[in-house]
Design goal:
By secondary structure, this protein is of the alpha/beta class. 14% of the residues lie in helices and 27% in strands. It is built from three helices and 22 strands. The strands form four sheets. It has a six-stranded parallel β-sheet with strand order 6-9-12-15-18-21, with helices on one face. A six-stranded parallel β-sheet has the order 7-10-13-16-19-22, with no helix packed on it. It has a five-stranded mixed β-sheet with strand order 3-4-2-1-5.
Length: 212
Amino acid sequence: MSAASLLLVGAGGHAKACLDVIEAEGRFSVGGVVGLPAEVGRRLLDYPIIGSDADLAALLGAHPNAFISLGQVRTAQPRVRLFAELVQLGFQLPVIVSPLARVSRHAQLGAGTIVMHGAIVNSGAVVGRNCIINTHALIEHDTVIADHCHVSTAAVVNGGVTVGTGTFIGSNATVREAVRIGEQCVIGMGERVYADCPSGTVPLPRGPGVAA
């Protein structure tokens, strides 16, 4: 039985990392990539860039499954927009989990979320829709990550933490247990978060080792 076709939406560096996870998982055959209009006709690794956002409706028939491979750092808004558009058009947005990751059977993952190589999502954790749990990130027990969040490489989110919609947690950041982080926050690379963060928190002009 042949693998189902999957359309990737986003043709940058993050898409390359997603492709490696998708290939390793083996559930889908990548039918093509959607990029910027100027990128159409090029290739991303071994895969053709077959259209831009304007072509999504026309591509639905051949590729009923889609995955957002656009990265997220300062803002989640481009990914939020694409997610809403793909859902409205009728695409299926699967969960992608690397075979080198560990997701507890007692955890939950929302549609369109990816768990990348070496990441761990522990028992009782809930990760929302359209999230990136990046390489070697740790989501500990009973943590709740809302929709459209990116927990970056080697970040540690300890038990019982709540993370609001659209928040970014940078590489090697550590969040203390039971902390509440609001919506649309940016937790900088290497930050140590000891206290609750209101929505809209951004990195302070200080070095690592301070509360975000």
